[in-house]
Structure formats: C-alpha cells, structure tokens
Amino acid sequence: MKSIDGKVFFSESANSGLIEIRAQIPKWQETLLFIWVLAWTFCGLVVIVNFFGEYTREEKLMMLVYILFWIYFEYKAVYAFLWKKWGKEFIKIDEEGIRYKRDINSFGKSSKYFKENIKKFSAIDVKEKSFISSYYQSFWMVGNESIQFEHLGKKVGIALGCDNKQRDEVLKFLKYQQKKLHLK
Fold first, then answer.
1. Rounded to the nearest 5 degrees, what angle is found at the Cα of 92, between the Cα atoms of 182 and 143?
2. 112 vs 98: CA distance, rounded Å
3. What pTM did the predictor assign?
4. CB neighbours of 110 closer than 8 A, spacing ≥ 6?
5. What DSSP string runs through 139-181?
6. Each residue's pLDDT tens digit, 31-54
7. What percent of the chain has pLDDT over 70?
8. Cα–Cα distance for residue pair 12/67, rounded to 1 Å
C-alpha cells in the first residue's frame, strides 16, 4: 500500500482501487477530546439526577430542555471522540462504481454508487480564513469533506479531514481509477 503522511493509503488491483483515510489526531488532542466528553457527561448526569428532586414546574421544564440539548451534544461529542480514535473512510472504486464506508472500529454503513449515476469528481475549496474553514478544521469536529462527486443530482462529500496535498493525491487516484475502469 502506498501511503501519504500515514493518514491516506492507496492500493490497486487490475479491476479496482482502494483508498483508506484514517481520522487520527495527535494524542494530546485525543486526550483533550476525551476529557471534554467526560466533563460533558458528568454535567448532564448531574442535571438528570437533580431533575427528580423537589423543583417548581418551570425549573423542571428548564432542566428538561437542558437535558434534551445535552443528549444531542452528548451523542455528537462521543461520536467525534470515537471517530477520531478509531475512524476510517474506505473508498473502493471498481467496474460497478464506488463503495464508500465510514468505519468506526469495524462498524459503519456502506453506501454504493453505481457508475451510471456518478458525475465529476472535484475538490471542495473553502477559503482558508473563513469561519467555516476554521470550524471544520477543529479537531473535535467530524466533517471537512475535501472531495465531492455528483450522484443522481446530489453532491456526495468524501475524504474527511484531508489537507490540500492529501486531497489532491486522493483526487488524482480517483480520476486515474475512473479512467482506467472506463467509468464516466
């Protein structure tokens, strides 16, 4: 397997190509993310326990609203931690089309995109000094797709968290495989 920066890996055979993109972050960022998840979990559990105490209706309503927001962000925080710890993207391109999977420790849903419905691979360019660029490059976020293609009129984003060099290599490999396998 060919590797770029220990994050992106390529392999190919006569009739397919495979790209593996790892979502790893430096250990200190992983530790901070874990501490954040623990602190957020602790805060939510404290509010849940207190919800069953003697409070007015308005106070209970306020706690309930907090708990609902807490559940959503608890899910997001735990998912981000698991993704950064064990997450990988698998992109397999063959004669049928593309199989794409976001995998966390062997769990994840695979999507299949048939070659007849795939149009144009392209880089997603975000202005470097924009808010959205800063937001998606944060280590606690799952996102920052760097390549997209059209499938049945919808844009599908892939290659999460790749820098420009990695993105360009993945895009070059995809276009090479597309040409080699006679996809559109």
1. 120
2. 6
3. 0.86
4. 90, 99, 100, 101
5. TT-S--EEEEEEETTEEEEEEET--HHHHHHHHHHHHHHHHHT
6. 999 999 999 999 999 999 999 999
7. 94
8. 48
